[in-house]
Amino acid sequence: MQILYLLRFPLSNFAEQIYDILKHKVPAGKVTTYKALAEAVGTKAYRAVGQIMNKNPYSFLSDKRKIPCHRVIASDGGLGGFAYGNQAKINLLKAEGVTIIDGKIPEKYILRKL
DNA sequence: TATTTGACCAAGA
DNA sequence: ATCTTGGCCAAAT
């Protein structure tokens, strides 16, 4: 059954690495950036990271693996996007203790090196 | 194989 | 503090 799941949601090595790093190095109460994730894998594909978050098969709603894609924000402290709507992203972050000031995430919450 | 598409980023004649 | 522009590159088409 595991194999069927993988066939249904084939992961490139790139996406898999991003998910893994995000899942293991960004705890609740902290956030990271698209850029930091890309760099952690040794690439400048910042935008590709966003696409991967958008389409990730491990929806935090339906899958137990719960890749915390709501903890990924833009490099300038802005929210970035969220597949289920930005308000949902804000709510999740707030629930984890991340306060948003004036639409931006304060620097103290951001992990820029992974 | 070629072109288009982004939840991006940095710089600014 | 905004807005624009050119660059970036994996995935999707």
Summary keywords:
114 residues; disordered N terminus; DNA-binding
General description of the model:
The chain is mainly α. The chain contains 5 helices and 3 strands, in the order H-H-E-H-H-E-H-E. The chain has helices spanning 2-8, 13-25, 34-40, 46-55, 86-95, and strands at residues 31-33, 72-73, 110-111. A 3-stranded parallel β-sheet has the order 2-1-3. Helix 3 crosses helix 4. Residues 1-9 have low confidence and may be disordered. The structure holds a DNA duplex (13 and 13 nucleotides).
Task: Annotate the secondary structure layout.
Layout: H1 2-8, H2 13-25, E1 31-33, H3 34-40, H4 46-55, E2 72-73, H5 86-95, E3 110-111
Parallel strand pairs: 1-2, 1-3
Helix pairs in contact: 3-4
The protein binds a DNA duplex (13 and 13 nucleotides) through residues 12, 14-15, 33-35, 38, 43-55, 69, 72-76, 79-83, 86, 89.
Please outline what is shown here.
With 114 residues, the protein is mainly alpha-helical.
Mean pLDDT: 88
- Give the count of helical stretches: 5
Weakly predicted, low-confidence segments: 1-9
Query: Main β-sheet, in a few words?
Result: 3 strands, parallel
Biggest sheet strand line-up: 2-1-3
| Alpha-carbon distance between the two ends | 33 Å
